[in-house]
Amino acid sequence: MPILLAAGELNRSVEREKMAEYGEWNRKGATLSDVTAKAEYHVSQDFIVKGIQTGKLEYRDGSIWGNPYLRLLGRQLERYIVEELGEDYLVRVKSQTELRKVKKEISDLKKRLDALQDRKNELEASLGK
């Protein structure tokens, strides 16, 4: 037998879906700063503020060394980006961000490999004397 909800209960369940889950603010990787959001998702400060003002984004104030910033929930930000800019935009931006990280890691590994090659050559040269 299906459970019937009163209109007010349905509204509350929809609102709960938009709100942060219990402990989500403390979960590793669940939050990001407004600066990180601008860099990773290519959105403006105005876009973030508009999301906060419309109630689509929750935030917490933060401060590091006296510099204020906004902490946002990544899940809510991604949902807001999809609503405002489309899913294609989100997929493209996330792919660009991942590609940038992969390229950086490849570059770091190449530098590390070059350093190890140099060290190997030095050791072989010292043993060959």
Features:
single chain, 129 residues, alpha+beta, 2 domains, three-stranded antiparallel β-sheet, 3 strands, 12% strand, elongated, disordered N terminus
Low-confidence stretches: 1-7, 9-14
Structural class: alpha+beta
Helix proportion range = 55-70%
Gyration radius, in Å: 23 Å
For the termini, the CA-CA separation is: 87 Å
How many domains? The number is 2
**Strands, count:** 3
Q: Output the strand order for the largest sheet.
A: 1-3-2
Describe this structure in words.
With 129 residues, the protein is of the alpha+beta class. The chain folds into two domains: 79 residues, no CATH class; 43 residues. It is built from five helices and three strands; from the N terminus they run αβααββαα. The protein has a three-stranded antiparallel beta sheet. It is elongated, with a radius of gyration of 23 Å.
Short description:
The protein has five helices and three strands.
Write the layout of secondary structure elements.
Blueprint: H1 7-18, E1 31-33, H2 34-41, H3 45-53, E2 59-64, E3 67-73, H4 74-85, H5 87-128
Antiparallel strand pairs: 1-3, 2-3
Helix pairs in contact: 4-5
